[in-house]
Amino acid sequence: MSAELGLPANENGVDQKVLAAFPLCDVTEEDLRQNPQFCQLLTALAHHVDKMGLTGPLKTELEKAEQKLMSQRRVWLQSESLTGALQEMIQDHKVRKRHAAVPPDQSTFYETVEKCLLVARCARLLDPSDTTEKDRPSVLALTPQRVTEFMPSANSVERMKQILPAALEEHLSKKCFTFLCYYQPECENRNQSPERKTLSHLTAQLKQSKKKAEDLKERSREKRALLQRQTRLGLSEMIQCVRLMQSFILENRLKFQVDLDRDKLDYFEGKCELISQKIKAEMVAVRLETYTVDSISAHKEIRKSLQSELRSCQAEKNSVESKLFSFEILGKEFEALAEEYGKLRQEIDVKNWALKEFATYDDQ
Question: What is the secondary structure of 101-169 as a DSSP string?
Fold first, then answer.
């Protein structure tokens, strides 16, 4: 493969030669090294196609088509340029006519030119092309032949044709000189007559500038493709570096994670112990502030009285429990007697209350 390309047996040189032969192909040197058969295919294709991927016959046909298109475009541009120049002349005449007096023959000339342009434009718009239907209804029932009836008189047209070349040449000469002054500002301070020689060289200068701009554009495109490849390679290298850093960080993190966790555990244990001691100290301080000597003695007296009451209540509870136990031994018969006793006690209480009420009533 190196021999076919006329290069020494160097893989990098071969890869660069292949990439230079196909600048529009989105392939890197790494792709070519990983796919040697694809590299051989591209090397073989480099002898049959150009940098744009075109074969010899196809390139010839494309050049012929471009030449034909350029000739047709040139004809169209000539017509459009001539029409535009005439429109500019008419517009300039209208501006001059508004600001100053204009000779009548000059006004007649420009009016004739304007009418001829308008009629020609209408006739061209009404004339069906080869791609449209011939039997399509015309606009407002107008035909090109009907529109041509509005042309100025033959004498006016003939006089216009005689004056038009000189007027058009003068207008174009002024435009060219204006463009020359824009392209070469130093020409504006000179006399206009000597610069007519320079106008003949203006086309060559423009072609040279255009060629220079195209060369710069081509070099810029090549540099952009090279920059894209270098950027892609740089990004791939950066991705590999990031992966290596991630693996390194992960390994070191797993290695030192145990020691880090142990240190954290010791730290939190010490912190918890410190907080618990602080809580105990605060509790002692609160107790010292709350319980003074007088309050402690008073609490002792209260405790003694409560304990004595507790003992009396406990003794009463024991006696009641013994009575309940004795009642439980008597069984269900005692329950009936107890209920009857309760009812009798209620009746006695009611009768005692009634006697008291009667006694108070008798006293009154």
Answer: ---HHHHHHHHHHHHHHHHHHHHHHHS--TTS-TTPPPGGG--HHHHGGGS--HHHHHHHHHHHHHHHH
